[in-house]
Amino acid sequence: MDQERTSQEITSLVGREVYSTNGVFVGEIEDIKLDLGTEIVTGLALREPNEELFGGQVRGTRGILIPYRWVRAVGDVVLVNDVVERLETPEEEGEEVVA
Fold first, then answer.
1. pLDDT at residue 1 above 50?
2. How far is residue 97's CA from residue 32's CA, in Å, rounded to a whole number?
3. For residues 4 and 12, is the Cβ–Cβ distance under 8 A?
4. Which domains does the chain have, with CATH numbers?
5. Fewest CB atoms within 10 Å of the CB: 57, 65, 66, 91?
6. Distance between alpha carbon 75 and the CA centroid of its chain, in Å?
7. Tell me, what DSSP letter sits at residue 37?
8. How far apart, in whole angstroms, are the C-alpha atoms of residue 85 and residue 77?
């Protein structure tokens, strides 16, 4: 795959809003976590995450990192599994809270 085209596609994700498949706002993409060896996106760093979904876990943090495997569709917005709506603590699903 053309590396320049891939870089443009990846950076175009920054700034897009993320919603669950049930239509609940999750956050906005601030950065992408990339495995440089394989050039595969492994996570999405979200800023201003929905406090109703993540509760006190996100207060005072810069954002959260969600696994890319949760992504179901990418378009004008990014849709992720509704698993984010069922999280009780970020550690339960391999999610990281970025301080």
1. no
2. 15
3. no
4. 11-85 (2.30.30.240)
5. 91
6. 14
7. T
8. 17
